[in-house]
Amino acid sequence: MKITLKALFSLVFSLLAFFLASCSSLGPRFERLLGTVCFVNLYESGKERYYDEIFDRLKQIDEEFSFDTVKSDLYRINAFAAKEDVRVSDDVFTVLERAQKISEITDGAFDLTVEPLVNLWCINTNSPHLATQDEIDERLPLVGYKNIILNPSDKSVRFAKEGVRIDFGGIAKGFAADEIVKICKKHRIRRAVIDLGGNVYVYGKKKKDALWNVGVKNPEYPDSAPLVKLALPEISVVTSGTYERFFEDKDKRYHHILSPKTGYPVDNQLYSSTVLCTNSMTADALTTAFFVLGREKTMEILPSVRSELGIDLEVIFIEKNHNVYFSKDFPYTRAVLYRDWRIFRNQAK
Ligand code: AMP
Ligand code: MG
Q1: Ligand 2 centroid to 136 CA: how many Å?
Q2: pLDDT at 347 over 80
Q3: Nearby residues of 245 by Cβ (< 8 Å), 6 or more positions away
Q4: For strand 148-151 and strand 212-216, is the pairing parallel, antiparallel, or unpaired?
Q5: Which terminus of the chain, N or C, has fewer Cβ atoms within 10 Å?
Q6: What pLDDT does residue 17 have?
């Protein structure tokens, strides 16, 4: 067989193109899911099929935890669990169990049953409502995590009374981040940044022996440079803050983290609470809970929260008086980037 020079060139070129296409990485990719923008960067491991698998999984989670789809587990729970046992997916049951555990150890500061209050204030929507005391009093009896009864034998849920409803807004993104990490591990992806609307997971090593730089927002200028800069190994960093979702009325800010006890947006010294730990679902629920509990109470219970959950976790509180508190013995390198903020190391009792 006679091979012409032109044919040889074209063969070599095609092989080279094929080789480069299979080596070249794609991404990052982002999509609007779970009520926020979900961003994933797989760097040099970024292949179309990995991104597809990750975003298909996110879509599946979105459907299970969605308020809108009649077929979703959340819809079925809220519609029927007061009358009958509602069987749910493994995903939803996992999140329910973790949520209940965190409610128990935070004395109900985190509580999925805040939904009737979330629905009253409508802070996450374009038409928020300034709730009256009467409206709040009407709904408070429906709030209480003990109104959720879980049956692990058939993964079903039952509500103790009529009118109870649940909201996964304070925990679902963390669960989703952990599920993406599982996919990364399965494919031996070297490094990734996962950011699900501020629910961050830095996975693997940034470079050989290099740590990740992660910022915590300046609550007064959330769109500018971060207030705190951290150098971190593989970990999840989750923040709950007053600047995320809110409305203002007569110079008062009403934000989206509600006290299950009073029914109002939590009004304390805090701008934000941040939790760092290797389980993003836990970090997500705990930031909400710690915001509700406030700094002093959180620092008091932190050792017992760690031992109850069997996990290392660190916290950062940013206060309205420009104090930034780190948990005692905070092990990571950190810097506060604005001069008029003071750093404290909190002494847990
Ligand atoms: P996060 O941004 O993680 O603090 O979650 C806030 C979201 O969780 C809100 O938008 C509500 O949907 C829901 N939520 C508000 N307050 C609570 C609470 N005390 N416990 C559990 N979920 C809450
Ligand atoms: Mg949360």
Answers
A1: 22
A2: no
A3: 123, 124, 255, 256
A4: unpaired
A5: N
A6: 46
Query: How much of the chain exceeds pLDDT 70, in percent?
Result: 92
pTM for the full predicted model: 0.91
pLDDT in tens, 229-251: 999 999 999 999 988 888 888 88
What is the whole-number distance in angstroms between the Cα of residue 318 and the centre of ligand 2?
A: 16
Region of residue 19 (phi > 0: left; psi between -120 and 50: alpha; otherwise: beta): alpha
Is any atom of ligand 1 closer than 6 Å to the C-beta of 167? yes
